[in-house]
Amino acid sequence: MNSSRTPEQPESPEHSMIGTVKLPKMFKGQDYETLLETHLKKCMLFEDETFPANMKSIGPRLEEEFRSCEIKWRRPKLDDCPQLFVEGISLFDIIQSQLGNCWVLSVLGALTFNERLLKNIIPSNQDFNKHYAGIFHFRFWSFGDWWDVVVDDRLPFINGKYLSVQPSTVNEFWPCLLEKAYAKFLGSYQNLHFGVPAEAFLNLTGGIALTFELKSDIQQSELFHMIHNAGQDPQTVMICTTRMKDGSARSRSISYPSLYYHQDVRRSSVPVTMLKIPEKVHLGNGLVERHAYTLVSTEQVHFRSKTVCLIRIWNPWGYGEWTGPWSDICPLWREVSEGERKRLYRLREDGQFWICWEDFLQHFFKLVICSHSPNFLDWDHQPNKWYRRIFRDTWPKGVQKGNNANEDFVFKTPQYLIKVNDCDVVKSGFNVVVSLMQRPSNRHKFNGDWPAIDFQIIEVDPKFFILKEKMSRSHFSKEILSGMDRSVRNKRDLASQFKLAAGTYLILPCIEKTDQEFPFLLQIFLKSKDCAIQLGSPQHVEVYNSGPLPANYLRPDNVTFEQTFRKYATQENKMSVRDLRRFLNEVILKDLNYPKSFSNESSRLMLVSMDPTGAGSLAADNFGKLWHCVTRFKDLFWEFDLDRCGSLDSHEFQKAVDSAGFQVSRNQLDHMILLYENSEQKMHFTDYLVCMVRLKGITDAFKLYTTDGKGVNLSHEKMMQLMI
């Protein structure tokens, strides 16, 4: 299998765009480089006011649990020669401490086998060296964007022991600091206490995470083949979970070693008999109930004239291993060839162990596989490439989840169409993957819990792929799938794989009835290109009609226009960038108590958009056009900024763009939102105006140079002129 394959994304942003792993957004508006430079100059250690060293950062639920304990925050002691990394990075650097955070640590352990994925979340050039100022930063992915999260190095201790992850080497701190940054990203340490491994996978990789029940309808031979495929791909990582002792299933992984962990097991041998797992979480075979483990690799060994399939697993406690067949203490290893025994066998209490395939299926409950492309689903020589389409949208107010017999539900819900071609049909395996994610803010809107979400896949007539119009329930031929396991739908993410016959299918993302709008991110992976579209996209109308101006705005009528232009144009009846900036801040922002003003850069972008001559200044006529545009766009902003917060969310922005008459596809709209939204995923008034004026300029340029209304043919010189 070609491990370098990734899904093609025609709509994906370039690496230079804000929100990519190369240029992440600043979480809480904190710039690591600026903060580092400031504190180095002042010879001060950074203290993060946005994630303070007190119980607010630990969380109220944990405050109650540790009420009788001594809680202290400590920085690493420089006398102990602290380092971010000691002898590189290994899963043995990690030992779970007093939180039920195995759902995070098992994922982190899996990532230690992938240097590229780790580099995405741990930026280089930071350590406890001469540039040390008590500040570090890490990167996490959420809702389509990468975020840079800054933290100080004050770590919480409970009764002298690490609250969260414990480093196995006393002077190595990358696990503690990374997890502190993740706790800040999630809101507090208490949000690390119990969780869903698939969510950690997405935050730490930005990939797609699929969950499989090991006793599901997938044949066991196919399941092992899939795990083996995934293990051969260096870009794919896996974890597995156990059930409760009574055999019941829970959606969350909660086990934690509490106060019975041990010290100093990094890459060393500790006799198995020295360490015991408490009976209350012991399954009787060395495994821990409701616990998440890292799935490291698969192997096949020759044993007694047959082939035995083995799975390599790691416990994030750093100890506590399987004691059954093929464990470290099992005599079966004596009957394996010397070469295979040397290659695979280690008698070491480090949390890592082998288990045979049959026992793995019997004692483990779920498997989670994460990758940037679902290549591990390619069985029976399927086409190698997957294509991904990403859609950002919003469930409008009043949408209620239901079945496809509910006309109101069907009409209000955003609709997406996919096409499965004859060449995409598979005999075994899967050919479609769908992932639905809620925006993190949805949880806060829903009183601290995730609203229940789902999606339906329904077969429809192929003609709708050409018509691209929204459908009513009368157009449905039959329902293929009615969503996921109904016991686990109050989650941030849902993802599943499908084996669909050739045909056209409607995807309906749905949410339980709410009184607010809820944004979502939909990802669709298919085996053919350009086979996923959104239905009911805004139809083209005549671009821009200034309309009547609001009475309470300063209007560009003849007298006001001439006086204003003469007042601000300082360069022989021409307005420079600085002139325009002064006009925008003094006139357009007049009486608006918005904290953000127009910068030189935003003013330059607006000037260039309305300056077809490329002169770098505005004459009177173009200034008049700009003023008309800005006034109209300001009017639209007030129409859709209903809560008067001075910013628009993605859904409100789409309404403004549609009302202005711009023909913008959903992918283009997503691109603009990524460029201009702030850390709260909203577009501030000034950024909104810049974006709208640029849209106007691009639209005017297209109309000027097109001959058929469909495209343009430009020389290199003209293209450079327009771009510059």
UniProtKB/TrEMBL annotation:
Region annotation (Disordered) ranges: 1-20
Record-linked CDD domains: CysPc
UniProt-listed Gene3D superfamilies: 2.60.120.380, Cysteine proteinases, EF-hand
InterPro entries cross-referenced by the UniProt entry: Calpain_cysteine_protease, Calpain_domain_III, Calpain_III_sf, EF-hand-dom_pair, EF_hand_dom, Papain-like_cys_pep_sf, Pept_cys_AS, Peptidase_C2_calpain_cat
GO BP, one annotated term: proteolysis
One cellular-component annotation, GO: cytoplasm
Protein family per UniProt: Belongs to the peptidase C2 family.
Name of the protein in question: Uncharacterized protein
Native organism: Leptobrachium leishanense (Leishan spiny toad)
Lineage of the organism: Eukaryota, Metazoa, Chordata, Craniata, Vertebrata
